[in-house]
Amino acid sequence: MTLISRSPQRPGDVVTKETATTPETVAAAAVRARAAAREWWSQTAQTRAAALGTAARGTAGVAAELEDIIVREVGKPRAEARGEVARARSIVDYYAQVTLLRTGDVLPPSGPGLLYTERRPHGVAGLITPWNFPAAIPLWKSLPALAAGNAVLLKPATPAMACARLLESVLRSALPDDLFQLLPGGRNTATAIIDAADVVSFTGSTAVGRQVAARASARGIPVQAEMGGQNAAIVLPDAPVERTAEVLVGAAMGYAGQKCTATSRIIVVGDPEPLTEALLAAVQRLTVGDPSELSTVVGPVIDDTAVAAVRDAAQRVQDSGGEALAKWEVPAEGSFAAPVLVRGVPAEHPVNQEETFGPIVSVLTAASAEEAVRIANGVSQGLVTSVHGRDLGPLLTVAGSLDTGMIKINAPTTGVDFHAPFGGEKESSAGPREQGVSATDFYSSVRTITLAPPPAAG
Fold first, then answer.
1. How is domain 231-409 classified at the CATH fold level?
2. Which of 18, 73, 163, 260 is an active site residue?
3. Does residue 163 have an active-site annotation?
4. If both were cysteines, with which of 96, 173, 292, 373 could 52 make a disulfide (CB 3.0 to 4.6 Å apart)?
5. Per-domain boundaries in the chain
6. What is the CATH number of domain 2-227+428-451?
7. How far apart (Å, rounded) are the C-alpha atoms in residues 120 and 446?
8. What three-state secondary structure class fits 11?
């Protein structure tokens, strides 16, 4: 099967073509990877850190090329693509150093001798990644897996294959043969990777993530699945209107809302009109168009199916008696969806319960902070929530009542620190957190070792 990646802003621009990896090829790649992993783990930590340091320098060397490919292949606006490349470089630098952290603890033994723990790699890490962060997510999965001593089999999303190939060229030039292997493909390839790997990490939709987690769990291997988010922003009455509106529109509409951390619901405590007017004005000021321009905030969505999803969501709001306020001036060519601000439908409406993954955000009203928390928590997912206001007491009270894995106070739902744990609650995540030292813990397991003194001679 031939896989084709097209530029969403110019569908006639075929960025790359690949042949899908067959299950038989995946199985053979896993055998080679397992042998490479054993050799990799036998090296000193300093040797592994040096190799990853070489990869970091290689990533810096292709920064401009990687930025251009991200813009072209997935339509990410240049300013955000530049930020993602900077983050990618930081991720590789960080894990080169994490390789040198302690791998265990010394504990008090119950008798003479030594009692200690040691973290050891699982072996082969099977990684399945999405298209919306085509550099950052493959690296924030691959690098901790490598730092922990594993080999990597990476299946990127089809719309991000060219980005993945560039990352592969950097990593393979810095690492031993077969330690990092790129395996493009579809469902059959992903299934084969899950069946061959010793540990699996997935980022994508909730429906697919559940299947990945179930299949890996049935094999008894560690699995991590980062899935969707229907993220809320709670706006308290003392929040500064204009500044808050700018933050929320950026979090909802940046990169056309194609982030699992994008704000999907804005819950206003008290009178919603001043903030709604400010939100609409901020939406109207957005620059929609060519993602190669630094001024562009909203580029294309990934394909025409995504365009239809945004328009369908707005239409369902109108069919239910709500309003869809939109800026419809979008380029004629390409998969562009106009930013949409909707209001007038209840918290139970599908637009407030189901992730659209596009530039659409709903405004809801709550009579109290307690009601706002109930609305925010009243979805099946629990990735990130933001809270906005001036008085620290109410801000902390609301934050302490939220059931999301990440909580932002006076900050957008989007944007995460690469060295901090990342993940959600409920249907947003399965398994341990990603990023930071937590990630290397996931890609390794603990051995407890007892060393008793040798028997006395005689």
1. Aldehyde Dehydrogenase; Chain A, domain 2 (3.40.309)
2. 260
3. no
4. 96
5. 2-227+428-451, 231-409
6. 3.40.605.10
7. 6
8. strand
